[in-house]
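ok so I'm stuck.
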Amino acid sequence: MKITFDAKVTLTITSICLVAFALLNLFSNQVSGLFILNGQFERESASWYLSTVMYIFGHADLQHLFGNLSFFLVLSPIVEKAYGVKKYLLMIVTAAIFTAIIHTLFWDNGLMGLSGIVFMLIILSTLIHAKTNEIPFTFILVLLFYFSQEVYLSFSKDNVSHMAHLAGGISGIFWGYFKR
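replied:
not stuck anymore, here's the structure
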């Protein structure tokens, strides 16, 4: 038996998240502008534009990192295989930017983490085998449970960007239904 590197995008993103976590803990002042999206639009700052995607690699603590990576490592290879590397990368980048825009429009605090991408993967995993003109019941249940939970929790003061989760879910619906 040999170890295979089956899901290259998944493994690359996981590796970047681990490196970013180490860098944030060792050199926080120098790299936080790259791995944390500043919620205030900085038109003149190149690092702000970079952070509209790079924030997905930053995580606040080990619980945040391992929580996101646990779901990501389960769901991401499935979606990566179903859609292919190029389309999957496009999905991740556009979901990250869409979430960054939504976050910047409505909040001025920082944003970091893979949660929005994970929520996109949760939605996409229920739609992978759906046929045209079908709505899988599992998709309806995921919407019912996850979306209602995120809407409800968005009114709590818990330092979690529930709107980032919802934006990731909306991205999943978009890619799953409208861009097959």
